[in-house]
Amino acid sequence: MTSGRRCASASWVGRWSGPGSAARRRLALAAALLLVGGRLGAQEDPRPLVVIDAGHGGVDPGAHGPSGVLEKHVTLAVARKLAAHLLAGGRVEVRLTRDRDTLIALRDRPRLANAWRRPGQPALFVSLHCNASPSPQASGVEVYVLSEAKTEDARRVAAFENAAERYETNGDGTVDPVEFIRLDLLQNHYLHASTRWAVRLQRALATAHRGADRGVKQAGFRVLVGAFMPAVLIELGFLTHPDEERWLADPDVQDVLAARLARAIERTMADVVADAHGP
To answer: Of 129, 149, 132, 138, which is closest to residue 217 (Cα–Cα)?
Structure first.
């Protein structure tokens, strides 16, 4: 496993050309500021923190569609675009758990978020994924929070995403059940806030999505365990649906989804900060 303990400063800047290139160049410039932000040191940044986690990566491809589109590539592309939009807005500090095609252990992703967060700093951990189903007709977007799964479908989705642990070379994919329960109890403190975030983000994505609005759900995702801040997992769509696979692979669609998420994050974070300061 490649170490995930380095700051994921954006060593990338996309190639922006063609129609609308001015707007794309502005986003590219904002993306490049991730590198500067990493050098300046996040401890001096007074803004709220948003940690963007691109699911899977490296030897772990995640889900794949009938034409070969891989989840790890879609999630990284959307994560980069989301980071660029948020940086262009300038209202939040942005960190990426991975900024390239590499494997980060599930348990290390929330640990990175915790390490980047300053005491008392408003923060959000958002993990991006793509769904898969035995049925090629399943489609749509859904957002999860960490809690006991209420449906068989939610358990299936969590089991698929948690199976990424088999790619990690420094563990056997098992979790101490006592430790899992302890962390789950600690995170109950964040469940209400996570649900508030999930509702806002689901609403933002559903209005732009080609598929069904599958709502806000809960399940035991390992990547959310140990994030001591509001945390959500977003299933952007189904790669196993042929039309949705092509749709999710479209860079313009990815940018629309990222822009919707960015606006919802900025507005909700502003409400969170206002609530914290009181009337």
So the answer is: 149
CB contact at 8 A, 93 and 62: no
* pLDDT (tens digit per residue) in 223-241: 998 899 999 999 999 999 9
Spatial contact of 216 and 147, defined as CB atoms under 8 Å apart: no
Residue with tokens 């999710």: 248
- In contact, 257 and 142? CB cutoff 8 Å: no
Beta strand extents in the chain (DSSP E only): 49-54, 93-96, 123-131, 141-146, 213-219, 231-238
Structure token pair of residue 110 = 């929330």
The domain made up of 45-136+181-277 has a fold known as Aminopeptidase (3.40.630)
Quick one: which of 229, 240, 237 has its CA closest to 206?
A: 237
Q: What is the pTM of this model?
A: 0.80
In the chain, what are the domain boundaries? 45-136+181-277
**What is the rounded CA–CA span in Å between residue 124 and residue 164?**
22
Q: Are 107 and 225 in contact (CB under 8 A)?
A: yes
- Give me the amino acid identity at 164: A
